[in-house]
Write a structure and sequence with these properties.
This protein is mainly β. 8% of the residues lie in helices and 46% in strands. The chain has an eight-stranded mixed beta sheet with strand order 2-3-4-5-1-25-24-23, with no helix packed on it. Strands 18, 19, 20, 21, 22 and 26 form a six-stranded mixed beta sheet that branches. The protein is globular and about 50 Å long. The protein starts with a helix and ends with a strand.
């Protein structure tokens, strides 16, 4: 039998322990931000990815409950003004799936959206939409209920319009043609770390480099890979020095030689001087850790980190935080 005084003491201890992180979060949320922040109201708690659509001067956001929204940024916007999220796409055909990684294909005026069954891993798909009309261009099912379990996570697009979608569960990459046809599935023994505990979240963030290859990160191992598209999908580990990329999530190229890795910690800047045969972690940024940085984008030459978790009730407030990097 549990003694009442003991149970009361346990409850007091529990509330004290719980109050510590809550008090920390409240203090961080109330503090003046160290860098520029775009805040916006939303109806959902979780926003996996945000990308800047420069032509239309807006952020495009993927919805964890499924769908796509925009956050318009007016000229002369003041950081004190909270922006508003506006729903653009919500498909009944994808009900029950989260919208995760997105890629703006400005050359073809379209958006690529990864969708996945987060809890059961029974569905993965890639959709494409016209950026002006939001007409669906294609919806390609990558896996279904009868296939091996998968978790489509992020997407990159090359100059010809081919898309590359990572599977965070199976550590493979689907190549999808410009019209939505599945072209190939890329696999490699290098994608599978030796340690079993590093396999829970596999290939995640991915970008296309203008020199004709992909850069992709394995989240739990921190391994960064270069995939040579012009050499039949040859996979090479990028030798990374002066820091680790464990828990890396979304990727974004700042330039041909600079790569931003969002995740935990909030952001890391990685640089290469030999076309990504090797690389060095040169700087880092620590943002609101409780919000969980999950993606990065570049707006007007500045890096902004998307954060997964929104705060507030009933209207949730999300934050796109400028990453100002400090030497590592």
């Amino acid at each position: 039998m549990v003694c009442f005084p003991c149970s009361t003491k346990s409850l007091v201890i529990f509330f004290i322990i719980s109050a510590i992180p809550i008090a920390y979060i409240i203090s961080v949320e109330r503090a003046a931000p160290a860098t520029h922040v775009y805040r916006y109201h939303s109806s959902g708690w979780f926003r996996e990815c945000a990308k800047w659509d420069d032509f239309h001067r807006r952020f495009i956001v993927s919805l964890f409950e499924g769908g796509v929204a925009e956050v318009q940024v007016p000229d002369g916007h003041s950081p004190d003004v909270i922006l508003e999220e506006t729903l653009l796409v919500k498909e009944a055909a994808l009900a029950g799936n989260a919208s995760l990684g997105i890629a703006v294909d400005g050359r073809r005026n379209r958006l690529l959206v990864v969708n996945a069954d987060v809890m059961r891993n029974r569905h993965s798909s890639l959709a494409a939409y016209d950026l002006s009309t939001w007409r669906r261009l294609f919806l390609t099912q990558l896996t279904g209920s009868g296939d091996e379990k998968s978790f489509a996570d992020d997407v990159a697009v090359d100059e010809e319009g081919n898309a590359y979608v990572t599977d965070a569960r199976g550590s493979k990459i689907w190549e999808v043609g410009v019209n939505g046809e599945i072209v190939s599935i890329m696999r490699s023994p290098l994608f599978a770390p030796k340690e079993w505990y590093k396999t829970f979240v596999g290939l995640n963030g991915i970008v296309y480099h203008p020199n004709g290859y992909l850069l992709v990160i394995h989240t739990f191992s921190g391994n960064l890979f270069k995939i040579e598209l012009k050499k039949g999908g040859e996979v090479k580990p990028v030798k990374v020095g002066r820091g680790k990329l464990v828990f890396g999530d979304g990727l974004e190229l700042m330039s041909l030689t600079k790569l931003v890795v969002a995740g935990n910690p909030s952001g890391r800047l990685v640089e290469s001087s030999d076309d990504w045969e090797t690389a060095t972690v040169t700087a880092k940024f620590s943002g609101p850790a409780h919000r969980l940085a999950s993606a990065a984008t570049v707006k007007d030459g500045k890096v902004y980190l998307n954060h997964l978790v929104g705060m507030g009730y009933p209207r949730k407030t999300h934050a796109l935080v400028e990453a100002v990097f400090s030497p590592y």
